[in-house]
Write a structure and sequence with these properties.
Shape: globular
Strand order of the largest sheet: 2-1-3-4-5-6
Largest sheet: 6 strands, mixed
Distance between the termini: 52 Å
Structural class: alpha/beta
């Protein structure tokens, strides 16, 4: 599957870097990105052989794309592939193949392995012939995972549902609490210090309606948080005690990062939060103390 065009909108910067490499080694003939159209505009923009790349929820703003709507549009056109990066929403949160996607990609490093101790990736496909082709390609390029990584992944899959449902519920609880600060709710200790929060569980989120239909098991364990200033945002990871300052996500420990460090297209006030398995009340207390501290220092 090496298309001439890939319809894509934002998301993980590493995906765009890989597309750039594939363009370069193909002399510009393959994997040229085009803006992702809406499902309603797909017929006017897409053509046979194109790939629709849906990262949903999207990193780091947690926007949810309507997988079923894009799959319907692709079927009507014919010859258009729908690929979903579901790293932010593994089963049981989201089941993109059931929604009509042709291929689902997971970074097994994240929620599937879930303990920050294994690196890998997985593709899940609808078509048996395509699965055979991918296995042959895997053998040829040498991307077969090692025995230890497979053992660690099998260990982790036994607790996948328990972990991601808990992480999703805690993330939603924290996002709703922070959103009340955004709305300057009377008596909220962080009122005026939080600029925005993005999580599909929030009724105010632009993609909340799609998420309610699509993410049957929960809204995901990551959310994006913007503080009132860049200085406060840059300082927050170091001021926290329970959240670790790290760029990964999906592990049993809570992580936070100032995202601009890795992606200069992101707002300098934005932090990406990956919620672990700690108690929600403890994480809330840690966030409250640290946000008050860095906001006071920022002036």
């Amino acid at each position: 599957l090496l298309p001439s065009r890939v319809a894509i909108s934002g998301g993980y910067h590493g995906t765009h870097q890989v597309l750039e490499q594939l363009q370069r080694i193909s002399g510009g003939a393959r994997c040229n990105p085009i803006p992702l159209p809406t499902p309603e505009d797909a017929a006017a923009v897409l053509r046979e052989g194109d790939v629709v790349w849906l990262e949903t929820p999207r990193n780091p703003d947690c926007h949810v794309a309507d997988v079923a709507a894009y799959a319907d549009a692709a079927r009507e056109l014919g010859g258009v592939w729908v690929v979903v990066d579901s790293t932010f929403a593994p089963p049981p949160l989201q089941r993109a193949l059931t929604l009509g996607a042709d291929i689902v990609m997971h970074s097994t490093t994240k929620y599937l392995a879930g303990h920050s101790d294994a690196i890998g990736g997985a593709l899940c496909v609808r078509d048996a012939a395509l699965a055979s082709e991918l296995r042959a390609d895997r053998s040829a390029v040498g991307s077969t995972p090692g025995a230890l990584e497979v053992w660690l992944l099998m260990r982790s899959l036994r607790t996948l549902h328990l972990r991601v449902e808990r992480q999703s519920a805690t993330a939603a609880e924290l996002a709703h609490w922070l959103d009340r600060a955004v709305r300057r709710e009377a008596g909220h200790p962080l009122a005026g210090l939080v600029h925005s929060v993005a999580h599909p569980s929030l009724p105010s989120d632009p993609s909340h309606g799609v998420a309610r239909r699509q993410m049957s098991g929960g809204y995901g364990g990551c959310f994006a948080l913007e503080l009132a200033s860049e200085q406060a945002a840059r300082s927050l990871p170091a001021a926290l005690r329970l959240f670790r300052d790290a760029t990964s996500l999906g592990g049993v420990e809570s992580l936070i990062e100032w995202r601009r460090k890795y992606d200069d297209a992101i707002s300098p006030r934005l932090l990406r939060v990956s919620v672990g398995l700690e108690e929600a009340a403890h994480l809330q207390e840690d966030l409250q103390r640290a946000i008050l501290q860095v906001s006071a220092a920022a002036g």
